[in-house]
């Protein structure tokens, strides 16, 4: 790689041997070519690492690292970002697919709008077989994106692009609040910078029928509530009356509604922009 890239794509991996090749190839097919792809493997026990390494022989833009111990997603992301050579970071997961124009379109937004620190996009939700299930859209304007912070994350984490300097300014991802480390960071960044969304579906997001998040939904949502309370008490955010009602309903249903049903209900409502 003779010249410095303009974008660093960071991809944490863990036991993703079924999907990793598809994910890597979707980045290599981007219309914007001047990027580096940083892959950090979080102690996979399958063939994820060996499959990833094959691509380094074909494309020198790819750099691969392996954790000495399992750091989980936030720790692995922080490490990956520390290894990057650019100020523009694009997130990517090992089981998703980026559309060819993703990097190009998101990069243009950050270049044209210096006040924007994070840019997301719409996405298509697919199952393990790659079949389309539903679409998920997000608000476009910064003010509208910030309005939904108390209901759901204003960005699909695997399809964000952000400025590394801003990420560093707010201390990066907290590593002890998985999996709401992204929501915490968006709350912090939103106190000072703008958000944006590319109004196109730029990612195919893999939704699993069985997931560890289903089993841990109660603890996840309690962590989410703590992040929201912190935003109110320490960051100056003020939820609307509707936000309060929504969170009361969400919290109360934790105790009697099955996790799988709650996730299905949320996905149904989000796919129709009803929340």
UniProtKB/TrEMBL annotation:
InterPro entries: Glyco_trans_2-like (IPR001173), Glycosyltransf_2 (IPR050834), Nucleotide-diphossugar_trans (IPR029044). GO terms for molecular function: glycosyltransferase activity. Residues 8-169 form the Glycosyltransferase 2-like domain. Keywords: Glycosyltransferase, Transferase. The keyword Lipid biosynthesis does not apply. Coiled coil: none annotated. Belongs to the glycosyltransferase 2 family. This is Glycosyltransferase 2-like domain-containing protein. It comes from Candidatus Woesebacteria bacterium RIFCSPLOWO2_01_FULL_39_14.
């Amino acid at each position: 790689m003779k010249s410095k890239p303009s974008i660093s794509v960071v991809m944490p991996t863990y036991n993703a041997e079924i999907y990793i090749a598809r994910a890597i190839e979707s980045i290599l097919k981007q219309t914007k070519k001047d990027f580096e792809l940083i892959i950090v493997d979080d102690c996979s026990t399958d063939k994820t690492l060996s499959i990833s390494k094959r691509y380094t022989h074909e494309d020198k833009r790819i750099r691969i690292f392996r954790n000495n111990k399992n750091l989980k997603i936030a720790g692995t992301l922080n490490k990956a970002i520390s290894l990057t050579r650019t100020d523009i970071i694009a997130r990517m997961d090992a089981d998703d697919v980026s559309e060819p124009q993703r990097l190009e379109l998101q990069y243009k937004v950050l270049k044209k709008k210096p006040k924007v620190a994070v840019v997301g996009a719409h996405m298509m939700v697919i199952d393990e077989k790659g079949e389309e299930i539903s679409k998920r859209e997000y608000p476009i304007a910064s003010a509208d994106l910030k309005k939904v912070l108390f209901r759901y994350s204003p960005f699909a984490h695997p399809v964000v692009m952000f400025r590394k300097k801003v990420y560093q300014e707010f201390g990066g991802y907290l590593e002890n609040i998985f999996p709401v480390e992204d929501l915490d960071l968006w709350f912090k960044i939103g106190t000072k910078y703008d958000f944006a969304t590319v109004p196109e579906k730029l990612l195919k997001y893999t939704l699993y029928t069985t997931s560890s998040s289903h089993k841990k939904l109660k603890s996840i949502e309690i962590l989410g509530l703590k992040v929201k309370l912190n935003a109110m008490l320490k960051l100056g955010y003020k939820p609307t009356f509707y936000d309060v009602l929504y969170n009361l309903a969400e919290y109360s249903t934790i105790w009697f509604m099955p996790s799988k049903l709650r996730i299905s209900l949320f996905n149904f409502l989000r796919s129709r922009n009803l929340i």
